[in-house]
Design a protein that fits this description.
The chain is α/β, with parallel strands linked by helices. It has nine helices and 15 strands. A nine-stranded mixed beta sheet has the order 14-13-12-11-7-10-9-8-15. It is globular, with a radius of gyration of 21 Å.
Length: 336
């Protein structure tokens, strides 16, 4: 494609859409040429562009790629229209609430050979991006366990879903990504304490296909805010605090001394040095947009693919099923 400027379109100008608009306006090598929302532009995000009525009008504007930030129930119809028109697309998370719809969307983009991504913003937190890089480089050696805690007060913005679909979905996505392995099974317990219809507190114990065990505590009932991911492996642990974009490494002092003893049946664990890394702090949404632009230009290495988004939808459903039925649920991935 060379250095030509990409033409981007955005559909959905609500809470998330306005932030997408701001980032698209500032994105190098990209022009935001068209926006659409059936309800107009409540936050003044369009910045002088005509607000088009629907996805068909957006497509007619002649775009290379689109960002979809409409409510989840409309993802399928909008995404399929864009796929049919040959437009690369990033859909806000979740890909869909319905596994069948998520499968349909994923298949459409794969068959058309288009770049399809899902907007899991948490993955682009500087602390998690750096942790993922270090784990891939072997800093922790073999990964044993990933633990996440996402706790805080009740958000006024949520009406239609519980804490699993709204929040735990982030942890399920980022955990599979950090480990580079999908979920094999989950066991979950949830409760409703705030008088709402949906669960507001959940505890999930999981196992990934590579044997890593996971634990996720997620709720809306905590009087302080916590966003922590702890990855423990043979050579130590990385602790990512995504509220403050901090990353700390705790070395396992025994790992360094025992690596040459191939006969040792168990390498011990003892506290070694800890290092807090200074990170380049960029707004995660900006990183997400750069990653999708780069994918459209041929480097898909840092996007959340629709297939990954589909796996997360399946895992979310398994968590809800497990909590409802009181049993461990295995995640069959169909043909994936």
């Amino acid at each position: 494609m060379g250095s030509r400027t990409l033409r981007a379109g955005l559909i959905g100008l609500g809470m998330m859409g306005r932030h997408h608009a701001r980032n698209l306006h500032g994105l190098e090598g990209v022009d935001l040429v068209a926006v659409a929302d059936a309800h107009g532009d409540p936050h003044g995000a369009a910045a002088g562009l005509e607000v088009l009525p629907d996805v068909d009008a957006l497509i007619r504007a002649g775009i290379d790629y689109a960002v979809v930030a409409v409510p989840t129930q409309f993802h399928r119809d909008v995404a399929l229209a864009l796929a049919e028109a040959g437009v690369h697309t990033m859909v806000e998370k979740p890909l869909a609430f319905d596994i069948g719809e998520a499968e349909e969307i994923t298949a459409a983009y794969e068959h058309a050979g288009l770049v399809g991504a899902v907007g899991y913003i948490e993955r682009y937190n500087p602390a998690l991006q750096e942790a993922r890089r270090r784990i891939a480089d072997g800093q922790l050696g073999e990964i044993y366990q990933i633990v996440t805690r996402r706790q805080g007060g009740f958000p006024a913005r949520i009406a239609d879903v519980g804490v699993v679909k709204d929040l735990a979905t982030h942890d399920l996505d980022l955990t599979a990504w950090v480990a580079q392995s999908r979920y094999a099974s989950v066991g979950a317990t949830s409760t409703r304490r705030s008088g709402r219809e949906d669960e507001d507190m959940v505890s999930v114990a999981g196992r990934l296909e590579d044997g890593t065990i996971t634990n996720h505590l997620v709720n809306w009932l905590t009087p302080f805010k916590e966003r922590v991911t702890v990855v423990t492996g043979e050579k130590g642990a990385l602790v990512a605090d995504t509220l403050n974009a901090d990353l700390t490494f705790y070395a396992n002092a025994e790992a360094a001394t025992n690596l040459w003893e191939s006969m040792a049946s168990f390498r011990g664990v003892s506290e070694g040095d800890s290092i807090r890394y200074a990170l380049h702090r960029q707004e995660p949404l900006a990183t997400e947009h750069q990653a999708f632009r780069d994918a459209v230009l041929g480097d898909p290495s840092n996007i959340v693919t629709m297939r990954e988004g589909l796996h997360t939808v399946r895992t979310v459903e398994a968590v809800l099923e497990s909590a409802r039925d009181g049993r461990v649920v295995r995640i069959g991935d169909g043909n994936a």
